[in-house]
Amino acid sequence: MTTTWIAAHRSAVINPYEGFGLFEPRGFTDRTVRQSLRLAGGGDALRIRLSNRYGKEPIRIGGAHLAVRTRGSGIDPGSDTPLRFSGAETVTVPVGEELVSDPVELPVSAGEELTVSLYLPGDTGLSTYTAVPYDLGYAVPGERLSAELLEDAEELSTGHYLTGVDVLAPADTRIAVAFGDSWVEGAFTTPGADNSFPARLSRRLTRGWIVNQGISGNRLLSDEVGEHLLARVDRDVLAVPGVSHVLIHIGLNDIGLPGARSHPEPPTDRPSAEDLVTGLTALADRLHAAGLVAIGGTLGPYEGCVYDGVDSPEGQAVRREVNAWLLGDAHPFDAVIDIAAAVADPEQPTRIRAEFNAGDGLHVNDAGAKAIADAVDVTLLDL
């Protein structure tokens, strides 16, 4: 059987030096940082991806280990394996670059939880980071790569440097990339439960799987939080090995963030429905040019959200127009998932149903993510 490298986990990253941030950036000095992930698919071997894309100085890694996770910061010590990079156990990640580890001959399956531990001996500066990692991470002083449990560890709510795992799988394996904002990334779903709607949908598939390239706060047309969707399509979709389909939810932050009191852009910079339609069309055209199936998603409801200035009559009008276009016959996508209808309050469809509301009126909880996944016709994902 012919095999090739296929993405089994992805985490899209953010520049810690952005002017507007929803998350607190940070760095490390003489710390072991331990982070866990869950594989969306399996294979006969794997390799780990680390990124210093936005760092301002090279990152020295004094050691990196891979292990099977037990619980919290715990690992199975019998599975603890040093990672190597071109044969070396220590490595420096240059500014703006990504490193891929040497293959680890370890058969793995979908749903398996693994832990990557990095020892960072020097001052890293602010780290290239992920807004919503799979689960809480942990950091302790000194080199504790092989420790079975990290005692008295600092908990990390953001992810750092770890951007993906590839597995050696049959060459005909095809996967989907979920691409967009917090509704994709799974903000406000239970950490460590893998309950984002793409993860839940992935578990419904009989062939292939879905990896997640969402960024909470991300926009279609403007940078911050993260590079805007049209700018990151090459890196976060087209460069993902095995991709054949793309699921998209984007636009709520374009509409809402300019009105937020903490945001530097005035509300007058809010894009029009025509602007978003033009951007979504450009995105679909770019994906089609690469030979991919592009599946759009209607913009979720958010009326009554708790963040000052995000909900406005002007923004609601833009959302209404964009969703009408997506549900009509003029859009360029191969299909459209009605994400909004899956979680909307039947009595007030501009709001999230109470049982699906994560509490802020802007995001869905675990039950809401399940409702979205269950509403998708899996035959659209002919992987």
Automatic annotation (TrEMBL):
Residues 178-371 form the SGNH hydrolase-type esterase domain. This is GDSL-type esterase/lipase family protein. Transmembrane segments: none annotated. It comes from Streptomyces cylindrosporus. PANTHER family: GDSL-LIKE LIPASE/ACYLHYDROLASE, PUTATIVE (AFU_ORTHOLOGUE AFUA_2G00820)-RELATED (PTHR43784), GDSL-LIKE LIPASE_ACYLHYDROLASE, PUTATIVE (AFU_ORTHOLOGUE AFUA_2G00820)-RELATED (PTHR43784:SF2). It comes from the Bacteria.
